[in-house]
Amino acid sequence: MAPFLCSFLDDLDRLGAKDYQPTEQDILRTRVKTTGIVEVHFSFKNLNFKLFDVGGQRSERKKWIHCFEDVTAIIFCVAMSEYDQVLHEDETTKDLFEEKIRKSPLTICFPEYTGGQEYGEAAAYIQAQFEAKNKSTSKEIYCHMTCATDTNNIQFVFDAVTDVIIANNLRGCGLY
What we know:
Layout: H1 3-10, H2 12-15, H3 24-29, E1 38-44, E2 47-53, H4 94-103, H5 119-132, H6 151-172
Antiparallel strand pairs: 1-2
């Protein structure tokens, strides 16, 4: 059973109360499958952002090309805990990877992997696999390992992404 379902089952009394109001964690633990392209506009640090959620399901991937015109950054969210699955359609969580790596060796899918089964070593290997796919040396890859329900860490990641976007825009204007 998916971990988020266990947490909901543990809270059935609270969830079933007449005056139930979802908490931030309740909302973060829900999963809505993205179909099609969902466009969201929001402000962060007095900057306006336009975010496209394109969905990772195989049937949605051919629609991505329409989102790549005039973009400043591309953010790929990958569930590291799904390294031994064919499709990546589950929630993105660091904690599941930490748990899974102890039971299901990375060598199942990456026979060339020679490191240990500890989180740090395995995560560094997976990061290196993504970085090796970068064919353009002028395009930098910034990797952040996080858990989707850890709002503090997500805030840190979004701050870092925002800083990179601002620096790139300043560099494009000759101001950086």
